[in-house]
Design brief:
about 450 residues, 11 helices, alpha/beta, nine-stranded mixed beta sheet, Ribosomal Protein S5, domain 2, seven-stranded mixed beta sheet, 3 domains, about 25% strand, Rossmann fold
């Protein structure tokens, strides 16, 4: 009996019994390919009878030299990279069109070149004249950076092997093509093969490679998911076009902490690092308004204070709206349900709007208590006391759960002039100068701060 062919998706790995144009699991098109069997049949070795060479096995405690890093002197970029650029590493940078990826990397190329690295900048989207115009606008015309405009990866690799740069920037990976792959540039096969060749070059030659990647409308880097597994570091450059601030976020880093962020301000002279992002994301705290709450959060290894803004207003009959910017909409629905079920405060028939000021996106569950306080403050039209920060996780029972790195959060709040914190009951506050008010559950917050509702 003939063995049935198996098919799998090159993007998400889902297994299918037959070929189709679209993967039902992830929704990607033209990503399903037939799996090639390793063995010709039962009883036969998958790799045949030829023996391979033995590999050396070592202990976990073997001596290793510390990782050498090149520092760019752009502190926010070095922070996100884990302390600097590692030789032989592969970095993937994604972001929306026009967000400033090319500007950031051109500035980084100039700084790494000034630090002693031989830098090659290869543009597949712009002519050399366009890149030079940007460099002139940024005041980088004299930077020690070699420039080329090319999309043929065979020509690029041949040139790089001869020049042997310490850093290579490819802008962007979707424009590269290999003559050995029969598909258009930007296709799944071309992107996967191009990344494989560039990562292999980085590892074999010891050159760091930074790849620029386009993103889909969902905000994910376009192309097969395996590309993010092949590289060492994945960075996302985030921000709203209406805001001048940009956030560089690490979602994967083999040489440093993940979820680390760097904050930049877009100016006429390029991107400028923001040394104190907590002050950036806070509004005027001298006259607090109803619906505004300061959340003491953690982004990677850095404490970061941000402002949640809520607005609650009557809605037309049967058309209550829930709008969220900068936070998870599903978690907002959960908190509204807990407030109604455990505290007896209904939000039915009310429009609810929630926003994180400054274009920041918060993903921590520790923001639950701050969101609940902002919603209650907006609903009751009562402002919280000035110079107060809030953090804590809310369970479905209405109980408050303590969160990690409490002392770090409170010290950042104290540094910025806050003197009171609303925290869960079992929180260990340490020796911070911020006075902590510990709450056992959400009902206590409702009773103490806003009355019985």
């Amino acid at each position: 009996m003939a063995k049935e062919a198996a098919f799998s998706c090159t993007s998400c790995g889902a297994v299918h019994t037959k070929w189709s144009g679209r993967c039902d699991a992830c929704g990607q098109w033209n990503t399903i390919a037939e799996d090639t069997a390793l063995s010709a049949g039962p009883g036969k070795a998958a790799l045949g009878t030829k023996r391979g060479r033995e590999i050396a096995l070592t202990d976990l405690g073997g001596p290793e030299a510390p990782v050498r890093r090149t520092v760019s002197r752009l502190g926010e970029l070095d922070r996100v990279l884990g302390g600097g650029l590692v030789p032989g590493s592969a970095v993937l940078v994604g972001g929306d069109p026009g967000i400033g990826k090319s500007t950031l990397l051109l500035q980084a190329a100039a700084l790494f070149g000034a630090a002693g690295l031989k830098v090659a900048y290869v543009s597949g989207e712009e002519a050399t004249a366009q890149v030079r115009m940007r460099a002139a606008r940024l005041g980088l015309s004299g930077a020690p950076v070699k420039l080329a405009a090319e999309t043929n990866l065979r020509n690029i690799l041949t040139t790089l092997e001869k020049e042997a740069p310490g850093l290579v920037i490819i802008d962007s990976i979707q424009t590269m093509w290999l003559d050995t792959v029969e598909s258009a540039p930007g296709s799944v096969s071309q992107v996967r093969a191009a990344v494989h060749e560039l990562v292999r070059f980085a590892k074999s030659r010891g050159s760091a490679v930074i790849l620029v990647g386009h993103v889909t409308k969902e905000g994910q880097i376009a192309g097969p998911r395996v590309v993010e597994h092949m590289v060492d570091t994945v960075l996302y450059f985030e921000g709203e076009r209406g805001h001048q601030y940009r956030i560089l976020r690490a979602v994967k880093n083999r040489f440093g902490p993940a979820d680390e962020i760097g904050v930049f301000e877009m100016t006429g002279d390029g991107l400028v690092e923001v040394a104190n992002p907590s002050a950036l994301f806070l509004g005027d705290r001298e006259s607090p308004a109803p619906g505004t709450v300061v959340f003491a959060g953690i982004e990677g290894t850095r404490p970061l204070l941000s402002e949640f803004q809520a607005l609650v207003s009557p809605a037309p009959a049967g058309q209550a709206r829930r709008s969220v910017v900068g936070w998870d909409g599903g978690r907002l629905a959960m908190i509204l349900a807990v407030l109604e079920a455990r505290c007896g405060i209904p939000f039915s028939g009310l429009d609810v709007y929630l926003n994180v000021a400054g274009g920041l996106r918060v993903t921590e569950p520790a923001a639950d208590l701050a969101v609940a306080a902002a919603l209650l403050s907006a609903r009751e039209d009562v402002a919280l006391p000035a110079r107060t920060v809030i953090f804590g996780e809310i369970s479905l029972s209405g109980a408050l759960r303590p969160v990690g790195q409490t002392e770090t959060r409170l010290k950042e709040a104290e540094k910025l002039g806050f003197d009171q914190a609303l925290v869960p009951e079992r929180t260990k506050t340490g020796d911070s100068g911020v006075r902590s008010r510990k709450l056992p559950d959400l009902a206590q917050l409702v009773g103490d701060m806003f009355g019985a509702g």
